[in-house]
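This is your field. Please look over both lines of this record.
***
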Amino acid sequence: MDNTGNVVDAVDNDLRTSKMFANLNYTDEQIDQYRIIAREKRENWKATNANAKMYAQEWLRQEAKNMKSLLKPAQFELYQQWRKDNPL
């Protein structure tokens, strides 16, 4: 995200995301799946909202929707707490 809260194209380099991967013990497979999902969501957003920007809060809502299916139940519980502890 840039300093205005807009989501930028560099999802793979986002410090918050890297911290989340480490803190929640994502497997390599989960990291790959997360990145694929994030790119697809970003591309879908751009295709349907060509003149709009996805703001940070919308990105986080999209992220939260995908985490339940991506993470193991214990990881998802940790994610929910981690998200509260690591706001934007």
